[in-house]
Design brief:
By secondary structure, the chain is an all-alpha fold. 79% of the residues lie in helices and 0% in strands. It is globular and about 60 Å long.
Length: 406
């Protein structure tokens, strides 16, 4: 039994690798720097209320052997069509946001040029080569290494920061009131721990995992794998808030919106506490984290568009996986051309769009997992259903609050 559980690891860590990126390195650190520990309540609540909708991805796949997109198609073509349009509109902004942060870290780490367009191009080409050569299996193995390296370095950095801190830190919780603060809160919640549509990616990766395994992953193994990854994203979120709070809160420093400057400030968060000797180790850990997110988003969005295109039009088309990757690259470069100088705005735009579309995906996942297309023995418990309804209310209420506050 222990062997089968270990073998089932994969999609949950891929989820963690996709999630622990901009939401943690950028948004959580900013939250700590600007609000101290005052937004811990938001971090905990969003993890609690988004939990069911992410879990329903691997649950549905383990129960049926299908992706969530197959389930959406069974609910009706209009449902899948709405997803198709939403994903088409948001995937370019998401890819551009994660790529520009990765490019900033790469320019700081390798240093032969500060031109983030050049670095973005290099990173995307390398990502494509990895996907061509290694496909899912390489992604799976790479993610296990990256998550472990980041976790160890982050825990060490937080412990040293706590030990070195001479200030008594407060944990008084804050509810933002001004437009700028509310906008940041919604952006913070948007990708924390990830956009809700990443549940679709998770279901796709779960299907791919089954293709490379001798036996199909059981629902119990799938949920265990997901829970490990999900708890990991929560823990890392707390670590990054703590780093921002302990090092930058009330220091008079603010994070730059420019990619290169932000990368420098981010790495200094670690080296200021650990010492200059740790610069390379920390820089590599931060870079590999964001690079893994760049690869996973570059892989997942085209997979989702390919599957949904086939399901919508009931036939094979020229719009296959590689077509969508090329199309995604073109759209990403266009966005980077216009927003290369304002990484902060690009990240904020992508995260807010993700939060505003979250209720749609949450409702779809709930209706699918509790409906006739999922075997009754795999339906969620009463408690999980109740948590789902509370989560839907939470996502809708915060979206309305944001829209009426701007």
């Amino acid at each position: 039994m222990k062997k089968s559980i270990l073998q089932s690891f994969g999609p949950g860590l891929l989820f963690a690798g996709a999630a622990i990126g901009v939401s943690h390195l950028v948004q959580s650190t900013r939250a700590g720097a600007d609000f101290g520990f005052g937004l811990l309540w938001a971090l905990l609540l969003v993890h609690l209320f988004k939990y069911p909708f992410f879990q329903f991805g691997p649950r549905y796949t383990a129960a049926t052997g299908e992706t969530l997109l197959d389930g959406y198609r069974k609910m009706g073509k209009p449902v899948l069509a709405v997803y198709y349009i939403l994903n088409f509109v948001t995937m370019f902004t998401i890819q551009a946001a994660v790529t520009i942060v990765t490019a900033g870290l790469a320019s700081k780490l390798f240093g032969f040029t500060n031109n983030l367009v050049i670095w973005s191009s290099i990173l995307l080409v390398i990502s494509i080569l990895i996907l061509i050569i290694g496909k899912y299996k390489l992604l799976d193995n790479l993610m296990k290494f990256i998550v472990i390296v980041l976790a160890i370095s982050s825990i060490f950095a937080v412990l040293v920061a706590i030990f070195n801190s001479k200030e008594t830190f407060e944990i008084t919780q804050i509810l933002p009131t001004g437009t700028i603060e509310i906008t940041f809160l919604i952006a913070f919640l948007g990708w924390m721990p990830a956009p809700v549509d990443v549940s679709i990616w998770h279901s796709i990766w779960s299907v791919e995992k089954n293709k490379t395994s001798i036996s199909r992953t059981t629902p119990k193994e799938a949920i265990f794998d997901f829970n490990v990854g999900y708890i990991g994203t929560l823990f890392m979120g707390v670590c990054f808030i703590a780093l921002g709070a302990l090092v930058m809160f009330k220091s008079g420093e603010t994070f730059s919106n420019k990619g290169y400057e932000f990368a420098s400030q981010l790495i200094q968060l670690y080296t200021k506490n650990l010492g200059n000797f740790s610069y390379i180790f920390i820089a590599v850990a931060a870079f590999t984290t964001m690079f893994s997110t760049t690869i996973t988003t570059l892989d997942a969005s085209p997979r989702a568009m390919t599957i949904s295109t086939k399901l919508l039009f009931d036939q094979k088309t020229i719009f296959n996986y590689w077509f969508w990757i090329v199309f995604l690259l073109i759209g990403t470069f266009i966005i980077l051309k216009f927003f290369i100088g304002d990484m902060g705005f690009l990240v904020k735009l992508a995260t807010i769009l993700s939060f505003l579309t979250a209720p749609f995906y949450a409702i779809l996942n709930y209706l699918l997992i509790t409906g006739k297309h999922t075997p009754k023995e795999h339906h969620p418990t009463f408690f999980l259903k109740l948590l789902s309804l509370m989560g839907i209310f939470f996502l809708i209420a915060f979206s309305i609050w944001f829209l009426t506050s701007i």
